[in-house]
# Entry
Amino acid sequence: MAAAAGAHPLRRRRPVTRARLIRVSSPYVLILPVVAAVGAVLGYPLYNLARLSFQHYGLFELIRHHGESVGWHNFGSVLHDGVFWHTLERTVVFTAANVGLTMVLGTACALLLVRVSRWARLLLTSGLVLVWATPAVVAVQIWTWMTNYENGVVNYALTQLHAGNYEQHDWYATTFSQLAMVTTLIVWGAIPFVAISVYAALSQVPRDLEEAAVVDGARAWQVFRDVTLPILRPVLLILTSLSIIWDFGVFTQPFLLIGPGHIEPGNYLMGTYLYEEGYAKTDFGRGAAISILMLVIVAVLSVVYVRRMVKLGDVE
Amino acid sequence: MNKRVFVAVLAAASLVAAATASAGVQKAQANKLTVWLQVDAQTGWPDLVAAANQQFQKDHPGWTVDVQYQNWSDHLQKFDATLAGGNAPDVIEMGNTEMTKYMAAGAFAPLNKSLFDNSANWLSGLAKSGMYGGKTYGVPYYAGSRVATYRTDLFTKVGIKNPPTSMTQLIADAKKLAAAQKSNKGFSPVYFGGEDWYVAMAFVYDYGGAIARTHAGKWYGALDSPQAIKGLTAYKNFFLATSKASKTNDSTNPNPYDVYAQGKAGVIVGPSWYTCCVGAKFKSTTGQFVLPSHIKGKPLPGFLGGSDLAVPLTGNVAMGSDWIKDFTDTQSERGLQAKGNIPNATNLLGASINEQAAARSWFVPSAKHWVDVENGNILKNMLGQILTGKLTVKQAATDASDNITSVLNEA
Amino acid sequence: MRRATWNTVAVALFVVMVFPVFWMVSTAFKRDGDIVSYTPTWLPIHPTLSHFGAAIHRPFFWADVKNSVIIVTVTVAISIALAFLAAVALAKYRFGGRKLFIVLMIGIQMLPQAGLIIPLYVVLARYHEVNALTGVIVTYMTFALPFCVWTLRGFLINIPKELEEAAMVDGNTRLGAFVKILLPLAAPGLVATSVFTFITSWNEYIFARVLLNDQAKQTLTVWLSAFLGSGRNTDWGGLMAGSTLTAIPVLVFFLLVQRRIAFGLTAGAVKG
# Structure
């Protein structure tokens, strides 16, 4: 026994060196494919984007593949533009509303999924997936139709339900109304992902832990706060941070729903602003500068969540 | 578990192989002509495209033509990408309002005008859109004007025997229609959106005004001139007297012909192909007439929309030109005319309503930054302000004019 | 609250959420006259399959289906596999450059994609990956990987160490323990992430449009856009029929994998 115990440390030393090598290099080997793939494809475009932001690069320069350097002019012109600041303010409010609604409604939906019978769960999840699967372009067409001021279903239904006289009500008459329509469209499309992801995370919550808490006399919301929420935290943080990023830069829905012909500085969001000021005017240098500013701003907006996400992993 | 993983890997590998296989075959062929046309050609006159291809291949054995169909909404974005990547097509169809910006940027190769059929007689509105700095970069392909599509039965019911020949008469006819259709809820004698600037600007040009004028290399917004203001006021009166459509809508949402098909419109204003979609109920009682000017007997100037064909700088100029020649020769243009389009030369013009309307036409200022005016919705916003009464005609027109001046003169 | 009440709420929610989709599908079956009618026809009284027929017979429909399937399946398979490995590294190892890698993964997602279209096109053109399915796959993967890594890491964090250590005592290497233990436990997260990647890639439009020229090589979303592309009248019935067809594979994919998000997989795995 003693001999065996004594022999152990000696026998462990050599395998430790080799095992240690594998252990140290393992993580790098694991992340290498991702780093290589992303780096190979995005490396040059990112460098190009940064370089473009310091150049005057319009259609003329695009054709000749050569721009002229203008230093900080692009950034200066954007930051001195009142439209930029108004758009930023509008987008921040818009993002807060969208993310808030999406997360609350999506989580509520997930909690509902946990409590229903199997058939109801399958029905609702399939419905959510159908919503999720609808391409944004098609969803916009459906929305346009449903809210059409001449023959839209929404006006018809609201009038029939005696919610007021909504005949020929133009849902796109004011900026607030336009953005509200865009919000309903985006939130509708975003709920499935949140609901299903949170539901997936909920399935990781050990049932017996919840049951034990109930046995201990905890009320439903206390169980939620003390047992469920901590386990859901990483997923909720991920979803919130992603939602902020997506909703801040959203382009397709506002552009198509409000209509390319009706986009104007009064209803710009950062996504449509970037498109109009950069690409519609083929001022690629300016577009690059706006892209970089958007990156910085959204990083600042989501830093709280991202930081917490990064820290959460510091288990060891 | 191991077996399943193995099968999964095998499946993935075979899919990757399939993907790469289909990718590898597309290495550029030396004698291939790439042509970008809009989907209108694919759905409207594929036979003409095929005929042009056949002619081209007969003249140049060993060459193939690859026609790729584009959407109006994103073809310019794609074009920009190919210009940046160095693989632009050999021939591209551009809207006539899109040409100026790209010509000014040097995107196209200059073409030899004399190579193309009927080039001496090209419609001036179209030909102008393809010229810059005295050189020809775009070959007129086809055009369309704006006409009035109307319910012949409704007109007969209120005793109107012939289509109106003056604006005053049209307004009077509209009032008669409205009176007869009092019980038809939501009926609009003439249906067009308030912000349909194609209709509004026709009034401006009818009174001798213009959107913008150029002088010594600079552009000046001209909507605040007395003639333009007269035109805009006439437009406001016309709209308020005859249209129940939304004051802040343009001509696409909802589509006028959908409204017409529901029996809610007596006359709609738009391209002549609107007759396609008036619905089965009214197909036999639909006719067209040329919109009248405020001057009796003259047509209201119609917006000549259309397309040009150009050869990007990096394309094969000789071959591209030749294909364009085959696609716009007299036979092809006659074919386009038969499908309801306006052909590209005056000597080919016929007597259809569409073509009659083209006798008096207007076109957007051929300024490098005109596209920015359109994208900035300056005209639409002005019309909305005028019709909703937010601003007086003079105020709105002056604002828009100043706006236009600054946008058109941007560096 | 009774289960029955919850069930009712679920059904009500289903009706509200799915209504727009229902509208799309029912329109696909309506005759043209009913589609633009002022009084909405809730259910097609005279259903017609003509729109579906027209959609399927449009040129290149089946070719584009094939392209979409290839692109999306390869993208999802490779992205999930590579991202899972990277997520394992992030969640379970400590190594230098870890924070940088995490920040990179979220940073890339903050880039407005509109800004990258042309630079990306130029790079791909240089390697002749324009107008090629592999070019599109590579592009999609580049945007899918950071998302998958970021999300999967979140799901992996929750899995307790005791399980890995138990597996290691059983004689597995650390990596082996991960695969044997983590993989099944991370299944719900893998499913949610793969469904998301599937859907995003399946419905992606702008890059597919810009990168693919030949109609034989395009994806279904690009094919769908042709219904809207002409300046002339939109074929609503056809568009809705085409959209319905496009949505079917997603639903099928989800139904195949949804069994993995289930209770009971982890219940009982953690004991004290």
Observations:
- The two ends of chain B are 65 Å apart (CA to CA).
